[in-house]
Each structure stands twice: as C-alpha cells, then as structure tokens.
Amino acid sequence: MHHHAIPNVSDLQNRTFHTSFPGTDGLQLRLDYDTNNNLIYLGRAAASAQDSDPAWRIVKYIYSNTNVAATRFADGSAEFTKSWTLRATYSY
Q1: Taking the CB of residue 14, how many other CB atoms lie within 10 A of it?
Q2: Which of 2, 70, 74, 81 could form a disulfide with 58 if both were Cys (CB 3.0 to 4.6 A apart)?
Q3: 8: number of Cβ within 10 Å
Q4: What is the pTM of this model?
C-alpha cells in the first residue's frame, strides 16, 4: 500500500499540480490554482493521457467572494474530450 502525501497549499501556488491517486478510479488528476490558492480548474483523464490530448473532463470552479458557488464543465460537456492544455479557452 503506497501512501501519497497531500501537498502543502503553499507548494501549489501559481502552478498546476500533477498527481494520480492509484487505487481510486485509475484516472489522473490535474489541479490548477489561482494566485490566491483558489482551485479554478480540475481535470480527470485516463492514466495514459497526455495534457494536450483531447481526453480530459474539465471542471471550472466559480466563486462568490471566497466560496465555491458553482462548478461548470468545459463547453458544458462531462465527456472526456477536452485538452487540459487548452482548459482556459473553453466556455464554462
């Protein structure tokens, strides 16, 4: 059994966090935070997918003040058809 440390929030600031949690659903996870350490984008894809592949399901977190008010899928689609690299270009 491998245990993965959860990264410190300060380690995540201003960068995308790449990880995979084996033993859950086999999908990789991408997390993208803004400069205030608010989670903005969350992406999931098969373990073999590259960031540029059209193989991602991407969610954007919408905030009201400091609280998450909504989550929206890239282009309104929950399918694994988006590119993590292009996450900021989709409609949410």
Answers
A1: 8
A2: 74
A3: 8
A4: 0.73
